[in-house]
Amino acid sequence: MYNDDVLMSGLTELGLNPTAEQIAQLHTYYEMMVATNEVMNLTAITEYEEVCVKHWLDSLCLVKAISVDKLNTPLRLIDVGTGAGFPGIPLKILFPSLKVTLMDALGKRIRFLEEVVAALGLSNVTCVHGRAEELGRNTQYREQFDLCTSRAVTRMASLTEFCLPLTAVGGAMVAYKSQDCEEELTEAAKAIRTLGGNLEDTVKFTVPNSDFGRSLIVVRKEKATPAKYPRGGGKPMKSPIL
C-alpha cells in the first residue's frame, strides 16, 4: 500500500533499523492523522512521502544530537507544543524505552494524540493539555525531564523560558530550528544563562532525502531555574528575557 523507499533509506542514513511493527505503527499514525486532518487542522503536509521526510525523518534527526544508545534508555522526555505529535510520537515509536510526555495547549490535539497512543499500543506516554508556562510552575512537571524537545514553536529566547523550567538539572533541551539560527541564538543568550542553561552544541545538517536545512540547538541544564520563572500572563512571548 505504501512505498517506503524514501522512509527506509532515510532511516538507514540516520543509523536506524526499524522493525516491521514500528513501520506498521507509522502507517497507522499516518492514516489517523490524515483522517483527523479533514476535520481539524493538524498539518499542511499530508502527502505520504512528504510526511515521511518533513515530519518523521525530521523528528528522528534528534539522533544527530542525542546518541541512539542514550535514546534507547528510559529517558523522561517532554515534547513542548507537540501539535500533531512531532517529534514525540516518531521518537517513541522508534525508541520504545523512552518515557514520553506530549504537551500541547489545544485540547482537541491532545484528544487526537490520546487516540493515536491507544491505537498504536504505546506504553509510558502521557498526553497533557496545558501551557508550558503553567506546567513549568507545577511541581509535578517542574525540572522532572531528562530531555525537553520542541519543534516549530517560537523564537529561542521565549522557547528557553518554556523548556528549561521543565528540564531536570543535568538534562537538556533540544530545539529544532532552521539552519540559519545564529540571530536567534544571540538573542537568547541571556535567557539561557538566566534560566540555568548553557549552550552545549548547535548541530547543523540536511534532513535525509531532502534539501531542508536544519539545526538542533542543545542547551544543557546546569543549575536550577530561579523560582520566578517561567513567568505567567504570556510574558515569555510578549517580553522575552533579552
Compact description:
By secondary structure, the protein is α/β, with parallel strands linked by helices. The protein has helices spanning 5-13, 20-37, 48-60, 68-71, 88-94, 107-120, 132-135, 156-163, 182-194, 235-238; strands at 76-80, 99-104, 125-129, 145-151, 167-178, 197-206, 213-221. The protein has one domain (5-224): Vaccinia Virus protein VP39 (Rossmann fold, 3-Layer(aba) Sandwich), CATH 3.40.50.
Give a quick set of tags describing it.
single chain, globular, Rossmann fold, alpha/beta, 10 helices, 242 residues
What's the arrangement of secondary structure elements?
Layout: H1 5-13, H2 20-37, H3 48-60, H4 68-71, E1 76-80, H5 88-94, E2 99-104, H6 107-120, E3 125-129, H7 132-135, E4 145-151, H8 156-163, E5 167-178, H9 182-194, E6 197-206, E7 213-221, H10 235-238
Parallel strand pairs: 1-2, 1-4, 2-3, 4-5
Antiparallel strand pairs: 5-7, 6-7
